[in-house]
Amino acid sequence: MTKMYDIMWLERVDSTNSEAKRHISDIDNLSVLSALSQSEGRGQKGNKWSSFPGENLTFSIVLKFGEQEAGKAGPGVAEKARLSVAGKLQLVVAAREQFVLTEITSLSIVEFLSRHGIKAKIKWPNDIYVGDKKICGVLIENSLRGENLSSSIVGIGLNVNQRNFDINLPNPTSMALETGLQEDIKGCLEEFMDIFQNTLFAALSSDHNLRDSYLSHLWRRNIPAQYIDLSTHPSPEGRHHGREFTGIIRNLSPIGHLQIEDTEKGELKEFAFKEISYIL
Length: 280
Known about the structure:
Layout: E1 6-10, H1 16-22, E2 31-35, E3 57-64, E4 81-86, E5 88-93, H2 99-115, E6 121-123, E7 127-130, E8 133-145, E9 148-158, H3 175-179, H4 185-204, H5 211-216, E10 224-229, E11 243-252, E12 258-262, E13 267-271, E14 276-278
Parallel strand pairs: 1-2
Antiparallel strand pairs: 2-3, 3-9, 4-5, 6-7, 7-8, 8-9, 10-11, 10-14, 11-12, 12-13
Helix pairs in contact: 2-4
């Protein structure tokens, strides 16, 4: 398949997601902004993403979307997305189906790590774990136009060659710690983007369903574990004041919410992002 992405290497930025957002009107679809160093890398829930300069991959992928054609979908039609290539890449993704981007990204990372001999799992929605240790974080920021996405910035922080981490980080790991090998980060990014592009095309240009594959790689699925239910007890100032319970991850809702069996209450509960916290 022809390479449709373009990688731009930056020496230092505040955040590749922020840099992509500032210049999104000036750069092409499927552009990749990668920085050797970030001063204000961001993760999920407002957390800071920490990375040693030049040792890891910190990058953002820019996706731009077109509009759904009239008559292509109506009520009850589960059209996930469409892709057409006519000189330039054009993507269409309905806002209600935006979780497909999480699936594409997470599975691309898992596939990339697998090619390097690392067996990884997806901690819902899109952290990547090796065993009980975090090797990669993802921050996807979407913009909407009516009922469709207008653009997405997919930010990825993958620990590659770093071996020493801040002692305040609870459970980090890296490719180097898992394999003992030193990697060429620029070569790794090219390899990952080949996988990402192929996964994107397979998902958006056909009826291929990523959900089963995503579920098969879901961390803690069908395993009893401890969680904190924040759905009725918000967490002020980062403190968890919800109800602790033993649960078993069973499935995802059509829009990607996590479904956990509460073994104490004997019921299946559904959680949106920020409504559930894992006890590690």
